[in-house]
Amino acid sequence: MIHNLRADTVTIRGHGDDEIEAYLAVPTDVASHGSIVVIHHLPGYDETTKEITRRFAAHGYAALMPNLYHREAPGADSDDAAALVRNSGGVPDERLVGDVAGAMTYLKALPASNGKVASIGYCSGGRQSFLSGCRLPLDGVIDCYGAFVVGTAPETFPIRVTPVVDEVAGISGEILGLFGAEDKFPSPEQNDELAEALRAAQKTFTFRTYENAGHAFFASNRPSYRVEAANEGWQEIFEFLKRTVG
Amino acid sequence: MSMCTYQTQTLQVNASAKTAQGWAPMTDASVYFDHPVHFMADHALIIDVLNTDERSRARVGLEMDATSARALAEAILRALESVPPALRDESFAH
């Protein structure tokens, strides 16, 4: 069933109690719903990630995407904000986790919330979703091709990315990883290494690696889009949400 | 091959650029090879020229294929090398 929905720009309290912009989509024809925090990719709080946020609401989940670049460039076009943040070295992990925590609090306080919250992120947001799952009590964590969950970024990379695999013990919910077989960051070998770490920590996880797909295969407005991988991936996502947040 | 590089060269610049809001002084630049926003390829050479001052933030972006980027870089160097040093000195802003 495709639900009716409402989508708005809202203000939430993020890391350090800062007020930041966020995009909220909620189903309007359900008595109760699970929720998901949507973590945008490195190119920012953009139109296509807002479409993704609405898609969750159409499937019966409240979805909230914090603008992780709001502090650096309030009101700027998403690509301009992303360029400024990239030039300044990216979003610090501690701030990201604080913003996701703020989004969780906002979602749990919605009138029809069932109290359960998952996270999903794409590209750099995939790593950030995983990191959030290590540090916050998320009921489900979805990592879409996040680089540097394992594997160390070269020292010349000025974006602040460090591996988070050492923090897997902190994960409390189930994990879903969706990857492209042709991706190099993360590579299939790195995903195997992550799977091994999750097995060793006795975490519940599902990894899917799609053939003929590389990085950003969900990005429907880019040449990297792969319709078969994206369709199968969306199906995995909705099955995962049903069993983790209801 | 598909990947997300995160690789970024950053530098300070003394420049002006015409942005969506008109001409503006620019302070910084980023150069990287990663996923473009508009150019229809998986990867591109991207140049952002920025004003990072929070009171006057601005940005101009360029996305191009590797051949174009190399040709542009070489053309810039040829243009600089083809003029007398005294003229280059006159490019420093007052």
Short description:
The complex is a heterodimer of chains A (246) and B (94). Chain A is α/β, with parallel strands linked by helices.
Strand and helix map with partners:
The complex is a heterodimer of chains A (246) and B (94).
Chain A: E1 5-13, E2 19-27, E3 33-39, H1 47-58, E4 62-66, H2 78-87, H3 93-108, E5 113-122, H4 124-135, E6 140-144, E7 174-180, H5 188-200, E8 205-210, H6 227-244
Helix pairs in contact in A: 3-4
Chain B: E1 9-19, E2 22-34, E3 44-51, E4 58-64, H1 66-81, H2 85-89
Antiparallel strand pairs in B: 1-2, 2-3, 3-4
Keywords:
heterodimer, A: 246 residues, alpha/beta, 6 helices, B: 94 residues, alpha+beta, 4-stranded antiparallel sheet, 2 helices, 41% strand
Q: Could you explain the architecture of this structure?
A:
The complex is a heterodimer of chains A (246) and B (94). Chain A has 246 residues and is an alpha/beta fold. Chain A contains six helices and eight strands, in the order βββαβααβαββαβα. Chain A has an eight-stranded mixed beta sheet with strand order 1-2-4-3-5-6-7-8, with helices on both faces. In chain A, β3 (33-39), α1 and β4 form a beta-alpha-beta unit. In chain A, α3 (93-108) packs across α4. Chain B is of the alpha+beta class and 94 residues long. Chain B has one domain (9-89). Chain B is 22% helix and 41% strand. Chain B has helices spanning 66-81, 85-89, and strands spanning 9-19, 22-34, 44-51, 58-64. In chain B, strands 1-2-3-4 form a four-stranded antiparallel beta sheet. In chain B, a hairpin with a 2-residue loop joins β1 and β2. Chain B is globular. The relative contact order of chain B is 0.16. The model of chain B has no long low-confidence stretch (mean pLDDT 91).
